[in-house]
Amino acid sequence: MTNRRTRPAPRPPEGTPPRAELARQARAVLADAVRIAHWAAGTPGPGTATPLAAHALERAATALELSPAQVRAGWDRARLAGLVELHGDTARPGWRLRAWDRDDSAVLRGWVALFDAWSLVHAAPAGIEAGAVAEAVEAVPQVLSLLQLSAGPVTVPALLDLLGQRVAELQEERCEVPLGPGRTAPAAPAGPTETAADRATGSARSTDLNALLLDWALEGLAAVGALTLGQGHATLTPLGNWAVWVKLEQICVAAQSPAGNIEQSAADMLLGCARLTPGPARDEYRAWLAARTVGSAVAELLAVARGEDALLRGLAFEALRVVGAPAEPEVRAVLAEPSLRPYALLWLAEYEGNDPDDAQDVLSREEATWLWVDTAAAVADHGETGLLVRHLDSAVQGTVPALLDEVRAVGHPRTVQVLVALAAAHPDPALAKAVRRAAFQVHTGGA
Fold it and tell me: In a structure prediction context, what are the per-residue pLDDT tens digits for the chain, which is 447 residues long?
């Protein structure tokens, strides 16, 4: 038990609009993308790449009364915001598109996905080495933090100075020498013949490059609705201010993870969260996830889910719920694995907007029975005997004999242990005897 149970929910900065208003602004930013997503989802074969295939681009422009450039930009935004999904030559509506008009959280998550992809929305200046562009992208969070902390307009020279400092730090960390716009390495290391004029020229070239990259970054962030540009200054929009605050808060949560869970493996972290209530557990999952790349975290959680501990399997998918959209492809990929399929189906059902209470409907009878046994195994290993007895009530079968028949047939590797534990825990001698008989039949391979 930790103080995390009473940790108050963080409040956004004073003056931040309500979520409904933020969602309204996000809908306005993505209005064209939503229109194009609806058109693409209802049109066979609109294209598989960015930009749209030429014939689809023309049809979309005509149908939506937009210019080809607007259609192309809207299509890019729709994909980046998760409004459409491509399956071969067919575009299908993403879950966010289906929830767009009724779910403010889905709208804000879609806009944040676009915000995170600002460098893809607005093409980098031509002729600049990819490494220099990557450094600028890596330095932009510091620029955004200054804008957020300033709570108002910040001059471009101040932003340029901060960008230059951060880029220099990144280059120093990598033991690199700042270069000019062409980023071409010198033929030989600087020696005694280098003059002050040479150094000044190199510094000026570096400043010019940073200025070009800053202009690109500010224009890209403005293009996604994160900031507005004035004469020589930039200001975060309410959406941008809220998004930067959310990301700073995530960093703070990661830094404040109690009991060292942030540094643990996925299995140890999940065990550390096993006795927490859902809210504090989700805070721990967020802290652990914030300290890792999404890909490595999802892979580690799924590796734990494939293990023998049924409790960790269930908790791993709870943590994956906190990951959200970035985990969707990997979760969908494990549908072919029998031990993970019921969990993945429930995860996907909730991800696509189904009520958690109704998500069980996506499971077949056999899958629901398999999940019942797996959950019973988790209770038998980690829970109390009374909880195992109460677990009988959650079975989809109406009677214990029907449950035992289907449990015997489902082929779960822990069936025998679960039935033996249930027989030992149940207070009804007749029922306990029937359960023991079923356990013996499974163990010996009898009918």
Answer: 333 333 455 677 778 899 899 999 999 999 999 988 888 776 654 443 444 666 677 788 877 888 888 888 888 888 888 888 765 566 677 778 888 988 888 898 889 888 888 888 888 888 888 888 888 888 898 899 899 888 889 999 999 999 999 888 888 877 654 444 444 444 434 444 444 444 444 455 677 888 999 999 999 999 999 999 999 899 999 999 998 888 777 665 545 555 556 778 899 899 888 888 888 888 888 888 887 888 889 999 999 999 988 999 999 999 999 888 888 889 999 999 999 999 999 999 888 877 766 767 888 989 999 998 999 888 888 877 678 788 877 787 777 888 888 888 888 888 888 888 888 888 888 888 888 888 888 877 654
Contact 115, 237 (CB under 8 A): no
**Residue carrying the six token digits 């996905």:** 113
Q: For the chain, how are helix, strand and coil distributed in percent, rounded to 5?
A: 70, 5, 30
Cβ(85)–Cβ(92) below 8 Å: yes
* Residue 321 near residue 347, CB atoms below 8 Å: yes
Q: For residue 438, count CB atoms less than 10 angstroms from its CB and return exposed for 0-12, middle for 13-18, buried for 19 or more.
A: buried
Strands (E), 119-182: 154-155
Query: pTM for this one?
Result: 0.55
The residues with which 91 forms a beta bridge, in sequence order, are 86
Name the token pair of 124: 């980098």
Q: What angle do CA 340, 344, 345 make, to 5 degrees?
A: 120
Read off the DSSP letter of residue 428.
-
Rounded CA-CA distance 12/363 in Å is 39
- Residue 397 phi, psi (nearest 5): -75, 145
Calpha distance 108→346 (Å, rounded):
23
Q: Which two tokens stand for residue 331?
A: 């979760």
Residue 393 makes CB contacts below 8 A (sequence gap 6+) with: none
Quote the tokens at residue 72.
Answer: 């192309």
Which residues on neighbouring strands pair with residue 228, listed in sequence order? 235
Phi/psi of residue 194, each to 5°? -70, 130
Q: For 34-104, list the strands marked E by DSSP.
A: 84-87, 90-93
DSSP string, 314-360: HHHHHHHHHH-GGGHHHHHHGGGSTTTHHHHHHHHHHHTT--TTTGG
Q: Using an 8 Å Cβ cutoff, are 30 and 101 in contact?
A: no
